[in-house]
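Lab notebook, design round three. We kept the backbone fixed and only want residue identities now. Task for the bench partner: fill in a sequence for the structure below.
Input structure tokens:
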């Protein structure tokens, strides 16, 4: 099959953090040492080759960048110091932008100014809403539900969740259309989509594939951030009326236990990740895109301001409670609006979907007794 070459692809990928791959001569060492590379899925070698020759269509249709968890072993052992791990990371950023039909992902990834301005505008909008429409500020005791009635906050939560969820699902669908536009016998076996749903659920909930990497500490931190975020999202969207209350429950109450887990998991996971990026001792932390920093910092500040709202309520400090609640939402909402659909967070969605689709392709290939395509044939 002919491959259409895009001469500007390498230059384009540099905007997403791709290293200069002139040093790479496609020896295959990165694929040989990678614990996740499998027969029929020879990454990073194949994916980097697509980038080198400008095979944009092949790169867009491939799932390999999402099957990499960036443990950094390929970068550590590359005989030419071509940094294949960071190249795969850059390709994931590029794919996120390409899946996004709004074009915002591309703007945010390629321009710090666009990303920071968007975060600032959304934050200012949240503050303005509270300045104009907040309820009475009771000062002799804490009445958070009077200042910010749950009947006002909850519809906003659901609208935000539906909009962001719709954006994510539409982008996942674009990923699916690209990846499954070619493949052995998939359309002839639609039941594979149902049979492999367990793969989607397993990898979304556990990211268990990460455990195959040499250093398990990265999986632990990744798991804490993911579960902490998911826990807090569930509490503030699905269980808001149970979670946002003026009642102070006993320490053993499930509401406090679940909330404390979300805070501790996020605070620890984000702090460890940020320290790693400051120290730059591991390959995965040597290079950091603006989106990496923004997501982790905003997530950490969201968890810290959230626990401070709880502390101020607990010690009966009305005004600090109300002000901190506004600050909390002025950080959390921009993080959700900008980072979740367009930047760092989509990794949590695209990776399990990629595993799901790759398994479907592999099973369809086995039924036809031919190699799996995984989105595109080897170069």
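Proposed sequence:
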């Amino acid at each position: 099959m002919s491959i259409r070459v895009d001469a500007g692809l390498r230059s384009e990928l540099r905007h997403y953090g791709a290293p200069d791959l002139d040093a790479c001569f496609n020896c295959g060492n990165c694929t040989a040492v990678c614990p996740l590379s499998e027969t029929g899925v020879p990454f990073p070698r194949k994916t980097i080759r697509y980038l080198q020759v400008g095979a944009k269509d092949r790169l867009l249709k491939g799932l390999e960048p999402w099957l990499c968890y960036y443990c950094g072993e390929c970068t550590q052992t590359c005989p030419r110091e071509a940094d294949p791990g960071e190249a795969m990371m850059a390709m994931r950023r590029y794919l996120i932008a390409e899946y996004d039909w709004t074009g915002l992902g591309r703007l945010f990834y390629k321009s710090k100014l666009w990303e920071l301005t968007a975060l600032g505008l959304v934050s200012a909008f949240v503050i303005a809403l509270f300045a104009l429409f907040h309820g009475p500020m009771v000062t002799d005791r804490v009445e958070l539900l009077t200042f910010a009635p749950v009947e006002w906050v909850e519809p906003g939560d659901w609208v935000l969740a539906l909009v962001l969820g719709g954006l994510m699902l539409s982008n996942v669908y674009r990923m699916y259309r690209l990846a499954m536009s070619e493949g052995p016998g998939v359309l002839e076996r639609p039941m594979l989509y149902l049979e492999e749903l367990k793969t989607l659920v397993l990898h979304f909930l556990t990211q268990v594939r990460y455990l195959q990497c040499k250093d398990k500490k990265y999986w632990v931190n990744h798991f804490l951030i993911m579960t902490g975020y998911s826990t807090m999202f569930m509490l503030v969207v699905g269980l808001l009326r149970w979670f946002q209350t003026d009642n102070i429950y006993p320490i053993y109450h499930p509401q406090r236990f679940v909330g404390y887990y979300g805070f501790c998991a996020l605070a620890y996971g984000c702090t460890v990740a940020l320290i790693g990026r400051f120290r730059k001792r591991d390959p995965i932390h040597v290079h950091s895109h603006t989106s990496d920093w923004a997501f982790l910092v905003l997530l950490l500040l969201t968890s810290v301001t959230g626990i401070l709202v709880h502390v101020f309520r607990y010690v009966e400090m009305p005004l600090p409670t109300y002000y901190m609640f506004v600050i909390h939402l002025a950080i959390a909402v921009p993080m959700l609006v900008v980072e979740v659909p367009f930047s760092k967070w989509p990794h949590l969605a695209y990776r399990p979907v990629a595993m799901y689709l790759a398994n479907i392709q592999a099973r369809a290939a086995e039924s036809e007794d031919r190699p799996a395509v995984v989105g595109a044939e080897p170069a």
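Keep this in mind before ordering anything: The longest helix spans residues 150-179.
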